[in-house]
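agent: user wants the full assembly modeled, not chains individually. Plan: 1) parse entity lines 2) check alphabet per entity 3) run joint structure prediction 4) return tokens. Steps 1-2 passed, two entities, 553 residues total. Proceeding.
--- entities ---
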Amino acid sequence: MIKDEITKLVEEAAARAQRAGDLPEMALPPTVIERPQRPEHGDYATSLPLQLARAARAKPLDLGATLARHMPESPAIERVEVAPPGFVNFHLSQSWLASQVDVILEAGPSFAEVAIGGGEKVQVEFVSANPTGPLHAGNGRWAAMGSTLARILRAAGYDVETEYYFNDAGTQIDVFGRTLYARYQQLFGRDVPVPEDGYSGAYMIDLAEQAREKFGETMLRPEGEAPPDQLGRYGMEQVMDWIRRDLADMGVEYDNWYREQTVYDAGYFDKVMELLREKGLVTEREGAVWFATSKLEADKDEVLIRSSGLPTYLATDVGYHYDKFFVRGFDRVIDIWGADHQGHVKPLLLATEAMGIEEGRLTIIIGQLVTLRRGEERLKISKRSGDIITLREVIEEVGKDACLFFFLSRSADATIDFDLDLAKEQSSENPVYYVQYAHARIAGIIRTAKERLPDAEGGDISLLTHESELSLIRKMLHLPELVDVMARTLEPHHLPHYAQELATAFHDFYEKCRVVDEEHLDQSRARLKLVAAAQSVLATTLGLMGMDAPDRM
RNA sequence: GCCCCCGUAGCUCAGUAGGAUAGAGCAUCGGUUUCCUAAACCGAGGGUCGCAGGUUCGAAUCCUGCCGGGGGUACCA
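--- prediction returned ---
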């Protein structure tokens, strides 16, 4: 990346200045290269002189001049300027910019790649909603974020596995089984109510009907007896299929589907209880088993095994993370959770640290929730209430690509306010089409060129000197930098914004620069290369978001 | 009460280890097509970055307090 090269230039300039005695011997702060907002400030800039001024007992502008004087030559840099109050600005050379078109074309999708991961094994776990009902609209946010983050990390050189954790054991599943059995019995005329804490959604009736088709009345037990396990398991398998299908329809693929039951079957649950006991972090009182987090950095203990004998969500989750780190050996694990699970973050982090996992190897991203509305009408999203908007409905209503784009475009820290009416109304004004249209337009240009231009190959990129051409190239060069930033900060929401900027740069070029022009064959060939490069970068960007890059619209 | 997140244009939101004159989309108003897709482009208006202090050469960004919204909160996940 050119940004890294400029960083080296600045560091070399500082070192040369010190050797020459123009800059005092002193520890230098890390060199920060930023992108100025205004074009006249160049393509890249550093405020190093401002930072050094005090310690060096010199004026920032003088320091800037010193750095500029010692700056090594680079074919990429046309000009180095010092600007008040103390910036050093770098202007890229036109010929170097043009040369990047060939670099991009040669690299193809790998143009977005940066080598910061070093092959580290990273797991990204996301969605992991209970298989007690269909995914709701809010779950789509984690699907979009998680799958995109995984692709970003792969592009950044990490060895990534994605995973969905099915809670197929525990209390919620028991409630699910009892609800389904109640609905099932109702189909046979029994007057039994849905459990008070049960799932009132209509999908439970659908499931009961499916079960009746499959099992007939063989799942009926004498009145008042407990529901048969087989019925509940059957219902849950159906729901898991729904979930897998909904995610697939959103273009979200997983490497692994993990079942909570594994934590017990493989003995991880017992293992972590033993580990925590050895550390003296397990106490018993009031008939329950506790994780003594108050001995660590928390103000209260957490229950691991309820007085009923059933383990809590936390306990199995600790066992699950034992598997992630000790059995499967991930270097890093990233979990994406909704803000409604925020209270679980601290206990789980404390538990993994107690097990000897170094700080920083487990990252839990808390994403703020999605609020749904139709115009002014606020919609409930809770699964219990039954009155949910499913992810499937949203995908069918606004389309998978718009869904991905919209869910991705907000920072995890911001709540998403999803107006279904607006999403539908705006379907033609939606930014997602704006971006995809840029890609389709390019495909159209290339089709036209094939029909009208003899021998469109071998363009001379040095002919690319128009301001709009150079702006487009500049914008393309952002992508690897952005992948670098997103992989470090785990913030994929920059991608949709970048996609829009890239599309804007292309549309602007399209208006100002005619590509297919029989009168100017050389220019046409050069611009065809540029356009092909833009198409490649657009497709790569869309691909990182899991979106399609259509050739026609 | 305590803990976490947010508060930036009429609306929805960006602002990438504190940097130069705070940005985008939508909405509003005005303009652009004998020409590769007008699902596009160009222009205009619109801001006390919730409020008040503090740190700094420099704060939307960091710290403290307050106000407002969302989430969590001691054997549900």
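agent: reporting back. Chain A is about 50% helix and 15% strand. The domain at 2-92 of chain A is CATH 3.30.1360.70 (Gyrase A; domain 2).
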